[in-house]
């Protein structure tokens, strides 16, 4: 078992439902031990309200998501997606690698969406090529599992019981597992996450006995990021999550120290470079959906 995935709860099904007048959001963990090593959780988000209209923003995360919309037109740009109902029956899978920006999603009308949230390097265990080859952009249309995936997704959308949705998805991904033996890269990412992004690239190179250029090539090929970009993304996300999980008991200085920033000023500068807002102005407006680490900011 890779040590940086030890936080996963194996053989344990966890479900959390967030109900609002306009929509429904449910999270559930995989029940397969094999799959829970690579997929953190699934979520199911839908609305039957024809007048539904919301805009939300999500932020950099080392857990990346494959989201699938059913019967929706999805319009993509570099930092925004717009979702509207379609009269045609089709599925739209989208994979997002958000390393350093806030990305806005605008949804209008009826929609039905499945989210598959991968652990670090999780998606690499299900694709035959490298991340660099498969995903040229930060927001990508994802056709790589083909018609077999579409057939399973249709079953999942039609199934009403959450545990059966999970079983269908687990079974599909169990058949799709590919060898991914980049042990140095796995150890490097584990060290970065365990240190909350605090470990320097030079320290990482020395600890793993690999030169910096070779380490950079591994990161570029399999994460589409440099080592430094990955490290900064982890620092940001660890701070972001830590505040949300402890917001009644911690202040910004404590959050900054936990996430290995030099000081509060360093934390604020980095945070503002990504979100365009200070931590004080944004963090208290974030909403937690489900039981996992899905934190979105819904615009008024």
SSE layout:
Layout: E1 15-19, E2 24-28, H1 33-36, E3 39-47, E4 53-58, E5 65-70, E6 72-76, E7 80-85, E8 91-96, E9 103-108, E10 111-118, H2 131-134, E11 139-141, H3 146-158, H4 162-176, H5 183-194, H6 201-208, H7 212-223, H8 227-246, H9 252-258, H10 264-275, H11 279-282, E12 287-289, E13 294-298
Parallel strand pairs: 7-9
Antiparallel strand pairs: 1-2, 2-3, 3-10, 4-9, 4-13, 5-8, 5-10, 6-7, 8-11, 12-13
Helix pairs in contact: 3-4, 8-9
- Low confidence ranges: 1-16
- Helix content range: 25-40%
Count of all domains: 2
H-E order: EEHEEEEEEEEHEHHHHHHHHHEE
Distance between the termini: 43 Å
Structural class computed from helices and strand pairing = alpha+beta
Outline, from the CA principal axes? globular
Sequence of strands across the biggest β-sheet: 1-2-3-10-5-8-11
Largest sheet geometry = 7 strands, antiparallel
Structure description:
By secondary structure, the protein is an alpha+beta fold. The protein has two domains: 3-176, no CATH class; 183-285, Homeodomain-like (Arc Repressor Mutant, subunit A, Orthogonal Bundle), CATH 1.10.10.60. It has eleven helices and 13 strands. The protein has a seven-stranded antiparallel sheet with strand order 1-2-3-10-5-8-11. A six-stranded mixed sheet has the order 6-7-9-4-13-12, with no helix packed on it. A hairpin with a 4-residue loop joins strand 12 (287-289) and strand 13. Helix 3 (146-158) runs antiparallel to helix 4 and helix 8 (227-246) packs across helix 9. Mean pLDDT is 91; it is low at 1-16.
Name the features.
24% strand; AraC-like DNA-binding protein; 300 residues; globular; 7-stranded antiparallel beta sheet; Arc Repressor Mutant, subunit A; alpha+beta; 6-stranded mixed beta sheet; 2 domains
